[in-house]
Design brief:
Elements lengths: L4 E5 L20 E2 L2 E2 H11 L4 E6 L4 H6 L4 H9 L3 H12 L2 E6 L6 H7 L1 H4 L4 E4 L3 E4 L4 H12 L2 E7 L9 E7 L9 E9 L10 E9 L2 H7 L11 H9 L4 E5 L3 E4 L3 H13 L5 H10 L3
Parallel strand pairs: 1-4, 1-6, 4-5, 8-12
Antiparallel strand pairs: 2-3, 6-11, 7-13, 8-11, 9-10, 10-12
Bound molecules: uridine 5'-triphosphate.
Length: 292
């Protein structure tokens, strides 16, 4: 079955970026001149998925406006002869179809995904967390879709991380699968542990914010017992899923930035600016001039 929908949960509070996120969504913070969430939406489009389902919440209207037509602004730009910019804005709103559903309170990623159930229904779908920006010629999601189409099972993006940082991630225990098409990159997941200490971690393979999930995830998430504060964790839902059907971990190709973290956000900003044809040269010159 084709993957036709990508769910983007954007209802979180973004506490790590306060005060910047007091009155604007974290997902709208820009890396250079593009909001975080647009990088994820462009990855969906480049992977050939035609529809995005946003799980939004209070104070997130800026995201809806960003992906909507802005007739007044377009008219103003056309009047000023800024046709290129006008076309660029139009491209954002015409890239894909967008649907929105609201998570009433940010009760965890598992709960956010469950909120999209009526819009996704009974078909496999993708989930992207816009905190994770992944740069690669072949989009990470597209790589994962290839695995899904071959196996018919859920696929979770994983990455090797330094041992001393495993406690910031969900970590998998898995068995490597021999696979001619992506040698050394595919794992059958046997267990997942949320934020283990380095001593307890079964590996250094960390779960990153890209998932392809089969409809069996709905039951798996519904069966999660809410934790502290009524939160429904995605990891618990995935563990339930593992108990009923195979789930694969895929070590994707590409460079990933954790833009949900301040240091990661700065790294993404510097490296993406350096790679920009319109900015890279001048920015490199400026960085070289710094006495650091
Ligand atoms: P994060 O945990 O990184 O985002 O969730 P957060 O909670 O907003 O940020 P901090 O940790 O307080 O700084 C990853 C993605 O999942 C969404 C967030 O909006 C973010 O894009 N999310 C998280 C929801 O949609 N609902 C939730 O209940 C939790």
């Amino acid at each position: 079955m084709r993957i036709r929908k990508a769910v983007l949960p954007v209802a979180g509070l973004g506490t790590r970026f306060l005060p910047a996120t007091k009155a604007q969504p974290k997902e709208m913070l820009p890396i250079v001149d593009k909001p975080l969430v647009q990088y994820a939406v462009e990855e969906v489009a480049a992977s050939g998925i035609p529809m995005v389902v946003f799980v939004t919440g209070r104070g997130k209207q800026a995201i809806e406006n960003h992906f909507d037509l802005s007739a007044e602004l377009e008219q103003e730009l056309a009047g000023r002869g800024k046709e290129d910019l006008r076309r660029q804005l139009r491209k954002i709103s015409s890239m894909l179809r967008f649907a929105y559903v609201r998570q009433q309170t940010p009760k965890g990623l598992g709960d956010a995904i469950l909120t999209s159930r009526n819009l996704v229904e009974n078909e496999p779908f993708a989930v992207l967390l816009s905190d994770d920006i992944i740069v690669n010629e072949v989009p990470c999601l597209k790589q994962m879709m290839k695995i899904y189409y071959r196996t018919g099972h859920s696929v979770i993006a994983i990455q090797r991380v330094p041992r001393n940082s495993v406690s910031s991630y969900g970590i998998i225990r898995g068995r490597q699968v021999q696979d001619k098409e992506c040698p050394g990159r595919l794992y059958r997941i046997e267990d997942m542990i949320e934020k283990p200490s380095p001593a307890d971690a079964p590996s250094n393979l960390a779960v990153i914010g890209r998932y392809i999930l089969t409809p069996a995830i709905w039951k798996a998430l519904s069966n999660v017992v809410p934790g502290a504060g009524g939160e429904i964790q995605l990891t618990d839902g995935l563990k339930n899923l593992l108990a009923t059907e195979p789930v694969y971990g895929y070590v994707f190709e590409g460079k990933r930035y954790d833009a949900g973290d301040k240091l990661g956000f700065l790294q993404a900003t510097v490296e993406i600016a350096l790679a920009r044809p319109d900015l890279g040269k001048a920015f490199r010159k400026y960085l070289r001039s710094l006495k650091i």
